[in-house]
Amino acid sequence: MGATTLLALVAAFPQELSPGKLLVATKDLGDPNFAESVILIVKHDSEDGTLGLIINRRTTVPLARVFEEIKGAKSDPIYVGGPVETTGAQALLRSARKPEKAEHVFGDIYATGDKDLIEKCIGDGTEPTRFRVYIGYGGWASGQLEHEMELGSWSVIRATVDFVFDADPDSLWTRLRQKADMRVAGLKPTSSFPARRSSRESDWGAARFLVSPRLALP
């Protein structure tokens, strides 16, 4: 895509980054860690960069296998949240009030890496339409994600509760990719540059709750 075309695309479809936005990988994204991924931005600012969770990569590993010591742990699947700190667990949950040690994302959705809060939700048997656990996360240094967007690696869509807790996450990327392609009216990014990742720790607790070494994600 030429510089003139890219600037026209950005002007026509502003791609603001903020918590509560979804990053939808383009078909030409060169990084296999994020191929066909949909990422919910949970934290973003100009100084510290961006943190997000992949929401469409569920595994065959059930909560009950990893948290077998918790009475009430169900067979709901764990998700791969990203390639950073893959021994750390974090969660997205819905709550009418802000839970302690949780970061507001948008609406009634919060992100947390707090061990006690995650284990309480598991023990309470919270339904997967309101609570999901992720291993790892995605991180970008300041300006890094913006640069990848300039290369055409991502589209940005406003998140909804239905997207975040989608009943069929395996098809979510295909559906949102079609939505994004329709929005840009045929203007297709062509960059195949690999995306780089920040390995810094999350300050919302993602790296603080270490999961059992029994976890073996496929």
Q: Outline of this structure?
A:
By secondary structure, the protein is α+β, with helices and mostly antiparallel strands.
Write the layout of secondary structure elements.
Layout (H helix, E strand, L loop, with lengths): L2 H10 L8 E5 L12 E8 L3 E6 L3 E5 H4 L10 E4 L3 E11 L8 E4 L2 E4 L2 H9 L7 E10 L3 H7 L3 E5 L2 H4 L7 H12 L35
Parallel strand pairs: 5-9
Antiparallel strand pairs: 1-2, 1-10, 2-3, 3-9, 4-5, 6-8, 6-9, 7-8
At the fold tier of CATH, the topology name is: VC0467-like
Q: How many H/I helices? A: 6
Could you spell the SSE succession in H and E letters?
HEEEEHEEEEHEHEHH
What is the overall shape?
globular
CATH superfamily caption = VC0467-like
- Overall structural class, as computed from helix and strand content, comes to alpha+beta
Query: How many domains comprise the coordinates?
Result: 1
Structure description:
The structure is a single chain. The chain has a single domain, classed as VC0467-like, CATH 3.40.1740.10. Helices cover 21% and strands 28% of the residues. It has six helices and ten strands, in the order αββββαββββαβαβαα. Strands 1, 2, 3, 4, 5, 6, 7, 8, 9 and 10 form a ten-stranded mixed beta sheet that branches. β2 and β3 form a beta hairpin. The N terminus and C terminus are likely disordered.
